[in-house]
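Summary: Need help interpreting a holo structure output

Steps to reproduce:
1. Submit the protein chain below together with the SMILES for adenosine-5'-diphosphate.
2. Request a joint structure prediction with the ligand placed.
3. Inspect the structure token block that comes back.

Expected: a single structure record containing both the chain and the bound molecule.
Actual: see attached output.

Input attached:
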Amino acid sequence: MYRKMLVPVDGSHRAALAAEHGAQLAKHFKAHLTIFHVIPPLPPYVNKYEDRLGEVYHNIEKQMEENGKEILNRVKEELAHYGLDLEVKSVWGNPAEEICREAREGRYDIIIMGSRGLGEIRGYLMGSVSNRVVRHAPCPVLIVR
Ligand SMILES: Nc1ncnc2c1ncn2[C@@H]1O[C@H](COP(=O)(O)OP(=O)(O)O)[C@@H](O)[C@H]1O
Ligand SMILES: [Mg+2]
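--- attached output ---
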């Protein structure tokens, strides 16, 4: 039923829960699992001064890329014992847009993600990324809370 599954992660507790749930489903369906991280671009008021900021700007970018790799590697290690057909992938961009793009272009069968992420504020069931993905995804979305 599910051949390709996409699990977007941001390093949060709920994304880790979603990854665990995705791994169990992938095991059951013998599916390919992609753990996906989107590195958000620096805000426009910083972006504008790329030239003037020079090395500092590039160090921040490098650090953000490193951070993304660490998030992905942590999840990969946590799921290693499932022995899955698993891939990790990261891209730069708007998280919700890139998650939907990856799902569409990679022809995924399902997205499994957390209801909230790192920016959790009490009182809201869903974060902005999960909200937008539910509305724009080309495939079913399973929200783990
Ligand atoms: N930058 C990101 N890259 C990949 N997945 C993300 C990213 N940000 C959020 N997600 C996914 O969306 C879920 C919900 O997060 P989000 O909507 O950002 O909530 P919050 O507002 O609480 O941070 C996360 O559990 C994770 O699965
Ligand atoms: Mg967030």
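--- end attachment ---

Reviewer comment: The chain is about 50% helix and 20% strand. The CA atoms of residues 34 and 52 lie 37 Å apart.
Status: needs-info
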